[in-house]
Every structure is written in structure tokens, then in C-alpha cells.
């Protein structure tokens, strides 16, 4: 899960394996990291004792063993947890993504200029008791903008943010390269970390492994990779969204059946769970749970190795998309909780319009395109991640491709194994995986740059960055980023998305809903997110 902008080199493959932890976020790569525990706190459920002092137990359907470094992580579990531990100058509402003052005292009144000034919240302290200062803010942004440091966050800031200056102990100034109002919502992606902790030798490695010290409403109390992470309310927090739960225990359960079992039945050990399988919705609702979905950018995508024939031919890529019976996939695998992709963006995105190339089910056109490309007897192995809903969708892809004479083999594997092969530049034909850039934000510039760019890791995987069409695309993307007029910028983005759709190098097949379940007799204020993880900053006990 990595972004790249012309001004910012992509993270190295080695660092990618460290900072990506859950495919539900964006086909991210999970890694097994050594335990970084803050103490021997029990991993058992303690949420059924009742009362305000109960521990809230959550079940997360993604691993907690990815990177916890906020400047690098794309892990669904870790990003969700960091939103409770850390603060940005501004943070955003988890659904509307509207910015609100977090560590800063106010959202700038004029976001159209090239200078934004922020005053830090009086009395804000980190979880070790030390005050938050302008030096901490500058420390984090310097790391993000440092051309010699490879971070995921660099791709969200380096194209438009020139520098961050200290004015005095409690005031900072962000200096922009050009007016960029969309950047205001991105400030939540720069979580402020204590310089006195993370400037020490080896501290960033500790952050990757799970060390987390922020200024947010919850502090981390224990971290057990592949098991659970625990939190408690930070008593000295004085910000806008205080903790409602004295303690929280987040369990990582990637397999669907035990995850559902943990939240269902008379002996349920958890009050909330994300990544609910569609087949279990009725069962959970009958058991008294609320189950709601969030629709957004979550998608099954196909990525072709354009360095290998015949996938260097756009007609072949288009043919394989036209061949897929998306309606059948949505009916059988997604139980109706999805829509065929009609653009790279989902239909609810503010910048959405249908792409000029919409891959409606058309096997005859698929056959004609393959014939036009001179392709016969094609055999494909689909290298796929083994996320449960992706695996459910794969038989429809195989049946569709088999039906047009393309002999198809499915090869679902652990996420780590899939992306390690590509990091090692091993050969492959087609990858099927999941992506959801919405956990970073809604603006189309961010979403598209997450996937496309001259030094973007995805484009390195696809071997497409040096294609003349790709180079023209990247130039168009840069022009759109710098366009000051909002309507003109939106049109420019939609135009280059048409190119992305036509080329179909890395392109979604379906956009699907993500389901969250919770016990309404115990919890209120829950809102289902359209991206992985949970946000409990506005939730409370009933």
C-alpha cells in the first residue's frame, strides 16, 4: 500500500514488507515481526463484566503484526489503532472525512493560500507526560519530507508541501508549493510523535514493531503480534474526542469462522467486529446484533504483468476484463453487497463519473479482442491473496475466462507470499487482490497516486511505468494536482482516469461493501466504515 508522486521516490521493497500489514487496506503485505509487548496483560476477553469500567473487546479481521509507524503503515489494524493513540494537527471524521481541530486549536479559515498556521492545543501531552511542542510537529514533517527517507506518507505530502516551520514553542507554519486545499484533510495522515522518543537510535524500528506513544485519548498498554493489542484511557487527554472506555482489548482474528464465533452466541466474548462475511449477516442479526455495511473504494482488482506477453497488449487486458461476469460474482460471492466497477473510483466518490471504458460482461467482444491480438491457447495462473471474500470471487473469474477459451488456474496464497514474489521480481502473469485507499482519504488525487505514478511500487510490480502511455498519464496527473480551479481539476482527474480504465493495467473488477457487527445492547455511536478497521472515538457504553 504505497503511494508515489513524481517528487517522491517510492519506498524500497524491503521497507514495504515492514510497513504493510493487512491486505484489506490495499493489497498490503503482512510481515511477522518480533513481539513488542508493553507488559504481560492478558489476551483473554474481559468485556462481559458490565458497567462503565468494563473492557471493550473488539475483533479485527486483519493482522496486528504490520508496521505501527504512522509515517509508514498501511496496515488496517495498525492504522485503526493509531487513530486512537495519535493525533494529527487536524484529524478527519471517519465517514465524511471532514477535518476537525485535533492537536491544533482550529482549522485554518483560508485554505486556498500557500501558508497555513497552527497553534497547538494548550496542555496537550504525550502518554509519557511530556508536553507536545512545535519541535515534535517539525520532527514528524521533516521525516515525511526528507528526500533520503522512504515513507508511505511522503507520497501524500511531497508533491505540494514545501516545509514546516517552527514559529515558537506552540505555533507552526506549513508552507505549500502551490495552493492545495485538498491537503487540509491529509493532515490527519501526519500523526504527531514525540521527538524525544523517536529521534533515538533504533526508535523507528521499535515503532515498526509496535511501540506507540502519542497524545490521543487512548494509550497502548500491551502489544502481542498475531494475538491482540490492549489500550486504556489516557487520563491527561484534553482534546476534542475523549475516551469513552476505560480499557480496550483488540483481538486479531483473520479467519472468518472464529471471528464470527467470537462475537456471536450466548458466550460472545466481544462487543464489536469488522470484516463480517456476507453469509453470516442473517445469523448475527437473528442473534440480536446490529450489522451494517459501508460502501466505498474497497475492491477486487486485477494487476497484469505488462513485461510478459501477451499482457503487454492492451487488447488482451481489456478482453480479460470484458470476459468477467461481474453480476454473477456479486450475486454468488458477495451476496449482493457490491457493484461492478464503472470507474477506478467508486460511485460514491465526489469525483466519480463513469469511465469511457466500462467493462460490461461481453464474452463475444472478449473473444474478438483476443483474436485481434493474435492470441490463441492462452493459459493463465491467477496469483491471488487468500483473503476470504477474494477467494469467494475467484471461481467466477476462472469460469468466465475458461468460457472464452482461456485455460485458467487459481493459485490463492498468503498475502505475504504473493507480494514477496513480486518484491523479489519473480515472474507472474496476473494478480488478484484487494485494495481500499479510502483509509487514507477520499480525494481522487490521493487515491490515484496511491496506485499510479512513475516511481510507484504498484507500477514497478506491473512493469508499466516506462510505457509511453504511462509517462503521458503521469504528466497529466501532475498537471491536475497543480490545477487551482476545483471544477477544472475534477474534469482533468476524470479525463486521466479514462486512460487508466482504457489501459486496465491495475483496475478494479467490483467495489464491495465492508460489514461491521456490534451488540446494540452494549454499544452506541457505532458507524460502519467503508474501509477496514473500526473507529470508537464517538462510541460509548449504553
Automatic annotation (TrEMBL):
InterPro entries: Peptide/Ni-bd, SBP_5, SBP_5_dom, TAT_signal, TAT_signal_bac_arc
Keyword Oxidoreductase belongs to the record: no
Keywords, sorted A to Z: Signal
Positions of the Solute-binding protein family domain: 98-445
UniProt cross-references to Gene3D superfamilies, sorted A to Z: Dipeptide-binding Protein, Domain 1, Dipeptide-binding Protein, Domain 3, Periplasmic binding protein-like II
Signal peptide limits: 1-34
Highest rank taxon of the organism: Bacteria
PANTHER family with a match to the protein in the record: D,D-DIPEPTIDE-BINDING PERIPLASMIC PROTEIN DDPA-RELATED, PERIPLASMIC BINDING COMPONENT OF ABC TRANSPORTER
Protein known as: ABC transporter substrate-binding protein
